[in-house]
Design a protein that fits this description.
The chain is an alpha+beta fold. Helices cover 57% and strands 20% of the residues. Strands 1, 2, 3, 4, 5 and 6 form a 6-stranded antiparallel β-sheet that branches. The N and C termini lie far apart (52 Å).
Amino acid sequence: MNCTPKGKVFKYMAYIAIINIVLIILYLTSRIVINKWHLALRGWVGILYMTNIIVLAVISIMFINKLLSLNLYSKIKNAVMQKTIKVISLVITAIIIISTCLYGLLLFSFTYAPEHVVYHDSQKVIAKVSSYGFHHSRVDFYEPINLFFMRKSNIESEIYDGSYDRYKKDN
């Protein structure tokens, strides 16, 4: 790749895309492997996965726009028409990127389940609080393995009325 500022941008976008693809493949592979051992990934790993998906989508959109615009600009001889197409493609790309980020945030807000380290029956467990229906909450208990993994505990799940987190500590 060339060393012009635009060439460096392509190079950095490619590096970011490759890193995100590797992390996404690692996440998906680890989920398949750990299911056989009846383990689960901690919540922050899922957040990192969704962030990688959004970053990869944004980078892909920017990369595709750059490639299409480079091919299109070289075919148009009129300078005013080139600038008009450049502005239109920039606006369309911005709208698509903002929509992708908003969709990702919306998806995150509906799938987020906070985790709390608590003591239940004198046993240290991770309480994962999630929405259960429209106005109910469900708490599943897991044994902490390490920073990345947890195992389903033998403590029965709790379901209670109200959409609140009873383990959340107010500061």
